[in-house]
Design goal:
Length: 173
């Protein structure tokens, strides 16, 4: 029986002029040292492949449009790390790439993400780093933009219902 518990997640999106790169980190408290033992025995690759496949299914349930064009996100790699080399605190890491798209320099650009609403069992942050100026953000979650309007961070609390429609409007030059 697995006893690991997710305790926090963070996601970083880097919105470039023709591709999004995303880094996802899931932090766990693992009293049974499941991930550590899988690393020691060499069985971690099979476990990561299985987790990656399941996570890809969740990602595929969401829709992401850049300027009304469907953009698909695909997991490129997965890894397990340990916070401070402590086997009780594994971090599952995923690198995700988008299919290509084009940003407009003539008018604003819209990033529209739709995810089925769900309750999250841990706190999380999601940061978008843009190659332009953020004009407007629409979201049900609490968020802040930085002083120069190039980054937006969404703060999600444990048991919060997340998902639905989120939009970021960007001027790219």
């Amino acid at each position: 029986m697995k006893r690991e518990k997710p305790i926090f997640a963070e996601t970083f999106f880097s919105l470039g002029k023709n591709r999004i790169t995303q880094s996802m980190y899931f932090y766990y408290y693992d009293t049974s040292k499941i991930y550590y033992n899988l690393m020691k025995t060499g069985a971690i690759r099979g476990e990561l492949d299985s987790i990656q496949s399941n996570l890809q299914r969740y990602i595929d349930e969401d829709t992401l449009h850049i300027n009304e064009n469907l953009t698909r996100m695909v997991i490129d790699s997965a890894d397990v790390l340990f916070r401070d080399n402590d086997p009780l605190f594994p971090i599952l890491s995923f690198q995700v790439l988008s299919t290509p798209y084009s940003l407009s320099t003539e008018s604003f650009n819209e990033v529209h993400l739709y995810a089925k609403p769900e309750k999250i069992p841990y706190s999380a942050i999601s940061c978008w780093f843009t190659c332009g100026y953020i004009l407007k953000v629409e979201s049900n979650s609490f968020f802040r933009t930085n002083d120069i309007q190039q980054n937006v961070t969404f703060y999600l609390t444990k048991n919060e219902i997340v998902g639905d429609h989120e939009r970021i409007f960007i001027q790219y030059s």
